[in-house]
Design a protein that fits this description.
4 strands, two-stranded antiparallel sheet, 2 domains, 71% helix, two-stranded antiparallel ribbon, mainly alpha
């Protein structure tokens, strides 16, 4: 069973960044709300102060006019002017309130945008780094698995069993990487069998250990070299040993009617016959 990757998936990384962004956004909202509360408290106080001043001035206006020698109290225009001034002050306070509250919202939005931009860049970088580390880990694990498998089949010496395993893997479509190792082991087995037959036919006897395995590139080549060395030795013996050959009657040829019989000795040197 393949090991579970110890590295985070891209979806997991995305989730982590999404949670971090939400936490940051919530904190920004809390800060903005606190600042808004402070601003509202400030401007509510200014409004109360403005209203109090307006009412006090309105109440004191007849007395102030009397001191100035104006009889009959405040005129309508004077009263209206005082009310207008109050409304203007009140409007200015509300305008400043709105400006400050908008600035708080804008600052929050700017903070979130800047945070998100940096977070997205960091997230992509982290994903790339995580995938690179995971790829290196997977390659190392695959190499370990291949070595384990090569050692497992090292002692297999049945071609039919190897062929059956290859067919099973091909049908399943799983672990197709095992097939080249099985084929190499199959080649080693066939070469070992050929070597054993060659030794048996030449009287050399001896045995052969099926230890090359599909994992060793030298296993098959060693067996092949052994077979070649054997046949080279046999050929060398043939070339260096004289042979007596009996010849029967030669057939008539168109150029000669002579008959010849007898025996003779010839040698084979370099693959060429030498007349005797």
């Amino acid at each position: 069973m393949a090991k579970k990757s110890p590295f985070r998936t891209n979806e997991q990384i995305k989730k982590e960044y999404a949670e971090a962004y939400k936490a940051y956004a919530d904190e920004q909202t809390r800060q903005a709300n606190r600042l808004k509360t402070e601003k509202n408290t400030l401007y509510d106080g200014k409004q109360r102060e403005g209203y109090t001043t307006y009412m006090e001035n309105k109440k004191a206006l007849p007395e102030e006019l009397a001191k100035l020698g104006v009889v009959g109290g405040a005129t309508e225009s004077t009263t209206l002017r005082g009310q207008t001034n109050y409304e203007n002050v009140r409007g200015a306070i509300e305008k400043q309130r709105g400006s400050d509250l908008t600035a708080i919202d804008n600052q929050k939005s700017d903070n979130l945008s800047a945070y998100n931009l940096t977070a997205q860049q960091n997230m992509r970088t982290e994903m790339q780094q995580e995938r690179a580390k995971e790829l290196a880990w997977l390659q190392a694990e695959q190499e370990k698995e291949e070595r384990r498998f090569a050692n497992t089949i090292r002692g297999w010496n049945s071609v039919s069993a190897i062929d059956s395993e290859i067919a099973r893997i091909q049908r399943s479509g799983v672990d197709l990487w095992k097939i080249p190792y099985l084929k190499m082991q199959r080649t080693d087995v066939l070469e070992a069998e050929a070597l054993a037959r060659a030794n048996a036919s030449s009287g050399g006897g001896g045995g052969y250990s099926y230890g090359g395995g599909g994992s060793s590139s030298g296993g098959g080549s060693a067996a092949t070299q052994a077979v070649k060395a054997h046949y080279k030795d046999v050929l060398s013996k043939i070339k260096s040993t004289p042979h007596t050959v009996s010849y029967g009657k030669k057939k008539k040829s168109s150029s000669s009617k002579k008959k010849s019989t007898g025996t003779g000795t010839h040698y084979i040197r370099g693959g060429k016959k030498i007349k005797w």
